[in-house]
Amino acid sequence: MKKYVMALDQGTTSCRAILFDKDSKIVGVAQKEFTQIYPKAGWVEHNPDEIWSTQYGVIAELIAKTDIKVDEIASIGITNQRETTVVWDKNTGKPVYNAIVWQCRRTTDICDDLKAKGYEDMVREKTGLVVDAYFSGTKVKWILDNVEGARAKAEKGELLFGTTDTWLIWKLTGGRVHVTDYSNASRTMMFNIRELFWDKELLKMLDVPQEMLPEVHNSSEVYGNTDAGVFLGYEIPIAGIAGDQQAALFGQACYEPGDAKNTYGTGCFMLMNTGSKIHTSKHGLLTTIAWGIDGKVEYALEGSIFIAGAAIQWLRDGMKLIDGAADSEYYAKKVKDTDGVYFVPAFVGLGAPYWDMRARGAIFGLTRGTTKYHIIRAALDSLAYQTKDVLGSMESDSGISLKSLRVDGGAVANDLLMQFQADILGTRVDRPEIIETTALGAAYLAGLAVGFWTSKEELANRWLLNRRFEPEMDEEKRAKLYKGWLKAVDRTKDWDDD
Ligand SMILES: Nc1ncnc2c1ncn2[C@@H]1O[C@H](COP(=O)(O)OP(=O)(O)O)[C@@H](O)[C@H]1O
Ligand SMILES: O=P(O)(O)OC[C@H](O)CO
């Protein structure tokens, strides 16, 4: 009897394995952080072998601590940090270079060159994206151009590319299956989101051989079984894939056009379902594929914020101001506000709606009265201000004024942040019972594919409110605070001219 679906959430800072039962309840979670590699200012890498060993480790830990039988798992769903680029040797299975992470800025010059050559409109039209170092395409090009022998091997069909979903599925199936789904493909800057194929014009622009790209599939279907030799002796269907932000949209049951969610993890990502319609943003948002199910693709508008919870991690690891992320709330509460301090965490440039690869982080408004509490509070506020930037664009682009915003991700545990978010938006903020919606979405996609669950409607009825945060701030104060934020952002722009 199949009792569970397992979701693998391969995030930017950690790997998780989570088991859900038929009632969508979490039966067990195992999670482990892995190493962040910063070889130079603005560069970010992960070791793909460590991603695999960490992911494998949490799978084994989850099975051991929940004491379930592996053959009770109906299917596995994979969700992943998007854009992060792995290139490996098809024959040996060994990566030719570290994974280049979505946050990495090393391809800024390649992007500037593409812009100078006039490719921006074509890229926007075909991919829904802006030309930015964020996306996989220029990262693949960098590896082929800079790793000795890589281009020659790629041209001979000996190298494979994948985002981390593709990498994990390759490993889980013992090197038999090389696939991704529409949502992940739409983040590569190589995939035509209108025609739904790897686009030859884009591949030529980036000089990437098509042979190295994975097959693109629905987000909910059986792609293959785990290799028994790899997966604890069992062949379990891998039946769902979605980029983590699209998976969160699915897990939040945002199934109707106009439904939106914001996920507060390493970065912050607001997505609004636009159904079968492709909205082209006039305000700095991306158009992206939400998911493909039964050959039908649905789209979303997205505001991508690069640094959100990562600013809190920086307070912990870089500044040693706090011992753990949750302490940020305790310290921030020690002051009534930031006393005029603004923290713009543009550590890796600015994403939506500004798209400035050369912006860098800064703290403004410091006085002799500034304490660490003000800085911690300003860091938390920056998540809310960045979200306001993006929500403004989303409302202008879609013509929809959101009555409430569904939120999820690690940082929404912070009540102070959620209240400030409602205050600064002037919009209700709804936190669901399950904030692991990314994993839940991946589980739903995998469960639907094997008949463990029957319909999206069934799943939508399971969404439960944990707490609603109502806006309490008056309009004048909101406007004054936000004006200060916009001034601060403006001063971080175009900073890095190296
Ligand atoms: N109580 C909290 N207050 C503020 N930030 C938090 C809190 N708990 C976790 N975070 C932040 O949330 C992020 C972790 O969320 P998660 O959804 O696990 O992210 P990801 O999937 O990107 O790794 C970290 O960056 C962490 O700093
Ligand atoms: O790992 P997360 O949750 O910060 O998400 C990363 C995004 O997918 C990057 O586009």
UniProtKB/TrEMBL annotation:
It is an enzyme of class 2 (transferase). InterPro entries: ATPase_NBD, Carb_kinase_FGGY, Carb_kinase_FGGY_CS, FGGY_C, FGGY_N, Glycerol_kin. Key enzyme in the regulation of glycerol uptake and metabolism. Catalyzes the phosphorylation of glycerol to yield sn-glycerol 3-phosphate. The gene is glpK. Glycerol binds at R82, E83, Y134, D244, Q245. The keyword ATP-binding applies. It catalyses: glycerol + ATP = sn-glycerol 3-phosphate + ADP + H(+). This is Glycerol kinase. GO terms for biological process: glycerol catabolic process; glycerol-3-phosphate metabolic process. Belongs to the FGGY kinase family. Homotetramer and homodimer (in equilibrium). One of its GO terms (molecular function) is ATP binding. Pathway: Polyol metabolism; glycerol degradation via glycerol kinase pathway; sn-glycerol 3-phosphate from glycerol: step 1/1. Residues 4-251 form the Carbohydrate kinase FGGY N-terminal domain. Keywords: ATP-binding, Glycerol metabolism, Kinase, Nucleotide-binding, Transferase. Sn-glycerol 3-phosphate binds at T12, R82, E83, Y134, D244.
